[in-house]
Specification:
about 210 residues, alpha/beta, Rossmann fold, seven-stranded mixed sheet, 5 helices, Efm5/EEF1AKMT1, protein-lysine N-methyltransferase activity, cytoplasm
Length: about 210
């Protein structure tokens, strides 16, 4: 008689260790939240939800992209973050600075940010609140949740509706041709990094002279 355990898929010890580490990190972060008057805007204050294809940028990348967005927007500029919550959180860490920012995001946990949060589903790219006027943002930074042409094309409709002209797109290197086709953006030298390594090479694309080269 065969051993009953044979048909139970076993996690490799490596996967198991990674999972344990992830849960431990999560517990530690939860603990930190309660012990320090937790900064609700800091990266990681809302956990990644992999089912929503969310992957946060590393702190360094988020800072770099936030800085670029502020420069691109100019004094008193308006910035829209489309599916790029970690950049939004970095922008919010800069207290009392001279720009305003909105976050368009499918994940309703971000509604803790109040009026700046706009529920957004890329399947309905122009289903936006009436007070979100066309071409009312100096720069739009977007990170479509999926590496598919359909997702990029629909997100592109939103970006084109919102922006006065400047676009900063973050997506896979494999999307270079589609990014040029749908948004007229070109790849920069800057390589964005994520807090967890992704299998797909990630790049930034812009349609203006940016500080990312």
């Amino acid at each position: 008689k065969m051993d009953d355990d044979d048909d139970i898929p076993q996690l490799s010890s490596h996967t198991l260790a990674a999972l344990q580490e992830f849960y431990l990190e999560q517990q530690q972060r939860e603990g930190m939240k309660t012990s320090q008057g937790f900064n609700q805007y800091s990266i990681g204050s809302i956990e990644e939800d992999w089912q929503l294809s969310q992957f946060w940028y590393s702190d360094e990348t988020a800072s770099c992209l936030a800085k670029e967005a502020v420069l691109a927007a100019g004094k008193g500029g308006r910035i829209a973050c489309v599916s790029a919550p970690s950049v939004y959180q970095k922008l919010k860490e800069q207290d009392g600075v001279d720009f305003s920012v909105c976050i368009l995001e499918y994940d309703r946990r971000f509604s803790v940010y109040g009026e700046e949060f706009i529920f957004y589903d890329y399947n309905h790219p122009l289903d936006l609140p009436e007070n979100l006027l066309p071409h009312s943002f100096d720069v739009v930074i977007a990170d479509p949740p999926y590496l598919s042409e359909e997702c990029l094309q629909k997100t592109a409709e939103t970006i084109k509706y919102l922006t006065k002209g400047k676009i900063l797109l973050c997506t896979g290197a494999v999307m270079e041709e589609q990014a040029a086709k749908h948004l007229g953006v070109k790849m920069c030298k800057f390589i964005p990094k994520h807090s967890r390594n992704l299998a797909n090479e990630f790049r930034c694309y812009v349609n203006y002279a940016s500080g990312l080269d």
